[in-house]
Amino acid sequence: MADLKRWGQGEITRIRLEMDRLFDELCFDLDLPAMICRMSGDIELWEEGDTLVARMELHGVAPGDVSVVVLERLLVITARMVETVGGRSRSRAFRKEIKLPCAIRTEEAQVEFAQGVLVIRLPKCASQYVQIVRLIKK
C-alpha cells in the first residue's frame, strides 16, 4: 500500500485518450461509425469582464469541418474528420453542448480557430433587473 500514488490530471487524460483510441479502432474494424472525443479535449469556459470565453482543442480538424452554433443560452460545437488509413476511409464526428450561465448577444459572438485551438468569445447580455412591486391593500 505504501507504493500507491495519486494520479494527476495528466495520467487520467492519457488513459482516457488511450481508451478512446482503442474504442475507435474497434469501431473501425467492425465498420461502425466512431463517435470520438479523442480528437478534442474538454471545453474550458471562463469570464473576462462582460464576455464568456470558451476554449477547446481540436487538433487534426480542418477549420471548414468545425461548426459553432450559439443560441441565447446554449453553445453547440460539432466537428467531423475523415481519415484514409490503408486505403479505407473512416469518419469521426463529435458534438458538444454547453448550457451557458447567462444569455448571450449572439450577433456579437466571435470565433477564432488557429493551430488546432478553437476560441469562442460570447458577449453577455445586460442583466435584466427585476423590480418588486408591493401590493397595497385598500
UniProtKB/TrEMBL annotation:
InterPro entries: A-crystallin/Hsp20_dom (IPR002068), HSP20-like_chaperone (IPR008978). PROSITE patterns: SHSP. It comes from the Bacteria. CDD domains: ACD_sHsps-like. Keywords: Stress response. Residues 34-138 form the SHSP domain. Belongs to the small heat shock protein (HSP20) family. This is Heat shock protein Hsp20.
